[in-house]
Amino acid sequence: MRIFRFSAKVFWVSALISVPILIFLYYALSPFPELKSFEKRNYSVQFYDRNERLIYVTALDGGLRREFIPYENIPEHVKKAFIKSEDRRFFFHQGIDLQAIFRATFQNIVGKRTVSGASTITMQLARLVYGEKERNLTSKIKETDAAFRLEAKLSKKKILELYLNNLPFGNNVEGIESAAHYYFSKSARELSKEEAMLLSIIPRRPITYNPLSNPEIAGKKAAFVFSFSEKKLVQTAKNLGGKAYDWPFRFPHLVEKAKKEIPPFASRCDLSVNLDIQEFSKFCVNAKLSEAKDSRIDNAAAVVLENSTGKVLSWVGSNDWFDKWHSGQIDGVLTPNQMGSSMKPFLYAAALEKRKDSSPLFFPTSVLADVPMEFGGEKIYFPRNFNNRYNGPVLFRMALASSLNVPAVYILSRLSVPYYLEVLYSLGFESLKKSGKKADLGLALGAGEVSLLELASAFSVFPRDGIYIEPTYIKGTEGKKRKVFEPDTARIICDFLKDKSARATGFGYSQTFLTKYPSIFKTGTANQFQNIVAVGATPKYTVAVWMGNFSGNTVIGKTGSSLPAQAAKEILDFLTEDEKLDFKDPENFRKSKICSLSGMKPNEDCPTTLEEYVEISRERTIQSCNCDWHRRNSKGILTTHYPAEYQGWISKNHTNSFIEYSTSELKIASPANGSVFYIDKTDIKEQRIPINVLGGISKKDELTVLYDGKELSENGKKTRILRPFAFTIPLEKGLHTLTVKLENEEKSIIFEVK
Q1: How far apart are CA 400 and CA 348, in angstroms?
Q2: Coil, helix or strand at residue 707
Q3: Residues contacting residue 52 through CB under 8 Å, at least 6 positions apart
Q4: From the CB of residue 216, how many other CB atoms can be counted at a distance below 10 Å?
Q5: In whole numbers, what is the pLDDT of the chain averaged over residues?
Q6: 31-238, CATH topology level
Q7: What single DSSP character describes residue 356?
């Protein structure tokens, strides 16, 4: 009998132990898809700048703000306030609080109305998980069942974390972080004890207990719940001044781009940008736009990069995001545009680079012909300088710094468009894969469409010794690096671009480019003044500014060297202040004295000289070649002897100047091979094609011309062509061959007349 009684006791004790365990296992192991879905719900993404300043909070559907804050970042007094307000025995029950149920039942019976509820924090979370809005017996049973499931599957910390981050506070706000922002203009991390108390009662009645609109009621209710000083709580609510939080809206264009790159369900994103630089950049571009009210400029954009890392420090996509009339939501930092002459430094750098198994095509001492030239075939390209003037022979340095057009196109014609495109692709100009080939020789003048970000990141290659770093803007990410130019090439280009004297030919001694610190600048004007742009850099920073119209309307009377350059300079002033760090000198080059006209070693008759970079390995060779452009005749008068390509240029306003034809090979300067001409049917006069032939090593002065295999003649009589070799031929429909001969030299072109 005793054994039986003992066994019975063991049985009941085992049952009492095992039943709760089995119930727990049932709830713990049973599926709860609603919870999984709830845990994966989206939160508003908080964007911070590099100095931990909140700059943007994304809105969910309907403008809802619901920011996530981890449990460990929630102050203890905030947690305690909500527990005391909603569920004092939270850490001691398993989802439902029987004591609270009995107490609430008694109070409601005595009061003959609903005096208090008995919902625990876990039960309230269950209601949020299921999205239940109705309060009836069925929903209560469902809520209770879900509470047990939550307690079985989650820790108390996790339950409290989910609850505090999803609790509705009215005014399109959920979660204590967004609620702290909306009602108290601060993070939940910064809430005082009084503010935490006021915040904890809002979910009960969001309209009634709103401390912004009802400070007295909210303060009194909080004082009652917490047995705290009513005076202090009411005053805390009144101090808010009834003003709700103004959600930060900085960097909207960058945020729109960053949203696409952050992981799913992310609630925070730290950017590399600096709010101070952003605000100043935006101030600058808006100030310049105000100055240009009469110039029909409605849009502007600016971007700032940190050279050492490629990190974006500022991103002004437009001057006004909310300007719908002028399409302010278009991102001018990413929108491809023609950037004009601001693209030229990359061309000149490519020209200085050593090609595979060969020397560079050009050197810092190279002299370029800035004279009227014709390029192309069916698509004739006849570049002109901005001021419609030509400068004759110009040094490589001056051609770039003064942004001369003819030398740039000539360089590209020598490099080839495909080769240059590959260089531009390596510099990150992905946009050119759409427009680059079509631009053809116009690439030399920035005809291809690229983005402002691409321009800035490519330009930062020069102060970075030729290394390209892919621009990044999310903290912790690193852009890919690759070597594009030799360090010496990049350093020489920097030296060219900071040379105020070399810039004077094209821009004069403009104050715009004068800084108290080492700096380089390049400007551009493109598309018939549709786009004006400037890019500038110091050893530490690169700034690019674009102005124009997203609509495509042209700008009136402004160039890239005016407003954008001024804005870029002011931004660099803000960034640099008294910085003395200078650009590096090339290691394998040193400056040697050259003739400022020919680029050769000066002779005793050269009127002016200057110093230019010469590669140390080539210095002896270069310096062994004395200038032969300057000579004195038998009477001792100084004369200048130019190569053949300058014959047209010196014919105007140049005295004591001669052409040395023997220094240049025979060349048909125009028309270009493959040219196509069209007969103008409205012109009844005979139409003719101008032919211009240069050079010819022979000292013979008469040129033999074959037109479709026959000697050129007129009225049955041979046409004599004497130096300078300039003549015309009749425009006749068909495919034609033109051949010129001078002793042992012979050149031919094919052209078509339609």
Answers
A1: 7
A2: strand
A3: none
A4: 13
A5: 86
A6: Penicillin binding protein transpeptidase fold (1.10.3810)
A7: T
Q: Which of 333-342, 503-512, 535-544 has the lowest mean pLDDT?
A: 503-512
Please indicate whether residue 37 or residue 374 has the higher confidence score (pLDDT). Answer: 37
Pairing status of strand 667-670 against strand 725-730:
unpaired
Secondary structure, 3-state, 678-689: CCCCCCCCCCEE
**571 and 309 Cβ atoms separated by less than 8 Å:** no
Residues ≥6 apart with Cβ < 8 Å to 605? 630, 631, 632, 638
What is the distance between the alpha carbons of residues 506 and 399, in angstroms, rounded to a whole number? Answer: 9
Using the CB atoms, write b or e for 371-382: b if 16+ within 10 Å. bebebbbeeebe
Band (357; pLDDT cuts 50, 70, 90): low
Task: Decide: 492 and 472 in contact? Cβ < 8 Å.
Answer: no
CATH code for the part of the protein at 667-753: 2.60.40.10
Using alpha carbons only, what angle is made at residue 643 by residues 638 and 647, rounded to the nearest 5 degrees?
90
Q: Is the dihedral of CA 630, 411, 568, 461 positive or negative?
A: negative
Q: Are 151 and 30 in contact (CB under 8 A)?
A: no
Task: Read off the pLDDT of residues 670-703 as tens digits, 9 standing for 90 and up.
Answer: 788 888 877 776 666 677 888 888 888 877 778 8
User: Nearest-CA neighbor of 44 among 21, 61, 24?
Assistant: 61
pTM attached to this predicted model:
0.84
Give φ, ψ of 383 to 5 degrees.
-70, 145
Indicate if the pLDDT at residue 658 is higher than 90: no
Q: Report which of residues 330 and 670 the model is more confident about.
A: 330
Measured CA to CA, the distance from residue 638 to residue 631 in angstroms comes to 6
Rounded Cα distance between 304 and 287, Å, is: 18
Instruction: Supply the DSSP string of 481-531, one letter for each residue.
Output: EEE-S-HHHHHHHHHHHT-HHHHHHHH-S-GGG--SS--EEEEEEETTTTE
Q: Do residues 55 and 251 make contact, with C-beta atoms less than 8 angstroms apart?
A: yes
- Percent of the chain with pLDDT strictly greater than 90: 51
Q: Which whole number is the average pLDDT over 383-412? A: 88
The fold for domain 301-576 equals Beta-lactamase (3.40.710)
User: How is the chain split into domains, by residue range?
Assistant: 31-238, 301-576, 589-640, 667-753
Alpha-carbon distance of 547 to 318, in angstroms, equals 9
Q: Which residues contact 139 (CB under 8 A, 6 or more apart)?
A: 127, 132
Judge whether residue 143 has pLDDT over 60.
yes
The C-alpha atoms of residue 168 and residue 174 are separated, in whole angstroms, by 4
- Scanning the structure block, which residue is given the tokens 């989802």? 95
Buried-state track 690-725, b at ≥16 Cβ within 10 A, e below 16 = ebbbbbbbbeeeebbbebeeeebeeeeeeeebebbb
Tokens describing residue 203? 């979910």
Cβ contact 163:125 at 8 Å? yes
| pLDDT for residue 153 is more than 90 | no
